[in-house]
Specification:
This protein has 332 residues and is mainly alpha-helical. 73% of the residues lie in helices and 6% in strands. It has a two-stranded antiparallel ribbon. It has a two-stranded antiparallel ribbon with strand order 3-4.
């Protein structure tokens, strides 16, 4: 090993030692602070959940990146770099094991980068330790604990998955653009069958995540409805919820169709499928609620919305324990 490589290894080792020392010092200070408050069980839960969350996100992200970069690596027959010897410039082929090591290193780095969005350890803690309320909501018939414990964690997982997929897609497109497999020729984008199949897999995953977002949007309507001040309204109950659930199923089916079409070279089918999902989403989410609301408009719109306003008011009173207040406390 040359002196330059030894110097690079030494610098990396020193940087890792400094980062590890800083992390341990911060952990020790937090331990002493929680101990002074007699809250060591909370500190242990915080450390355990944060470590578990970052470990799972880092490992999953690194494996996902590695799978995609390994696919890109297989599309490259050989990598030849120019090397100058005296006054001669010759091409030197990079050994395949070096390429594999490079793929592994980049995967680990990007996997570590994907741990950054996972800072909310409480979301995992709520999902792990949350107890059921033994009471169901009046619309989805789900235990109220689902909205308090599981839904925030699922939402954070959705956002992490979206970030990971966008990051990997950008890296894959950039690497393929460096090879003849993806090129712009006479104003048209040319791809090899290998690249087309890889892109079809990423496109199908993107549609699957879009279907996931529709599912989450259906539940989010309970707290952010289309009524005044975000009230869950009649049109949300009878239209928007069903539209989101239908779109989730259709988009998930479209993901499978895009995967098949892209894999077999049916580009038009894939394009029509994606376009149909976009157009259908716009029609069902923007136009249909307006049409239904106008068609079902009663003489008194307030009467139609009253049950939903009353339900929200009832849960608000329970949340602030209004019924437990005595008259003297309410006046005070």
């Amino acid at each position: 090993m040359t002196s330059r490589r030894w110097l690079a290894v030494a610098l990396v080792a020193v940087a890792l030692v400094l980062l590890a020392g800083r992390a341990l010092a911060s952990l020790y200070v937090e331990y002493q602070w929680f101990a002074s408050l007699e809250a060591l069980p909370l500190w242990r839960a915080r450390v355990a959940n944060a470590l578990l969350l970052r470990s799972l996100s880092g490992a999953t992200g690194a494996l996902f990146v590695f799978a995609n970069l390994y696919a890109v690596r297989h599309s490259v027959v050989s990598l030849v770099l120019p090397r100058r010897v005296a006054n001669l410039e010759i091409g030197e082929e990079v050994p395949s094991r070096y390429l594999l090591i490079g793929v592994a290193v980049i995967s680990l780095l990007l996997g570590a980068l994907l741990t950054i969005p996972q800072e909310g350890w409480t979301t995992l803690g709520l999902a792990r330790y949350g107890q059921p309320f033994n009471e169901r909501d009046p619309y989805f018939q789900l235990d109220l604990g689902f909205y308090v414990y599981w839904l925030p964690f699922e939402t954070s997982m959705y956002l992490w998955s979206l970030i990971a997929l966008l990051l990997v897609t950008a890296v894959v497109v950039f690497l393929y653009a460096l090879t003849p497999s993806l090129r712009l020729e006479r104003g048209r984008l040319r791809t090899s069958s290998y690249v087309r199949r890889h892109f079809s897999v990423l496109g199908a995953l993107m549609l699957a995540i879009l279907a996931w977002s529709y599912r989450l949007d259906a539940f989010a309507l309970l707290s952010r409805g289309s009524g005044a001040d975000g009230i869950f309204a009649y049109v949300d109950h009878h239209v928007n919820v069903q539209v989101n659930l239908v779109l989730a199923v259709l988009t998930l089916a479209s993901a499978a169709l895009v995967l098949w079409a892209g894999w077999t070279g049916q580009i038009r089918v894939a394009f029509v499928t994606v376009s149909s999902v976009i157009v259908l989403s716009l029609l069902l989410r923007q136009l249909l609620p307006v049409l239904v609301q106008r068609a079902s408009a009663p003489a008194d719109p307030a009467a139609r919305e009253y049950p939903y306003i009353a339900t929200r008011a009832g849960y608000t009173r329970r949340a602030f324990a209004v019924e437990r207040l005595t008259r003297s406390q309410a006046v005070a």
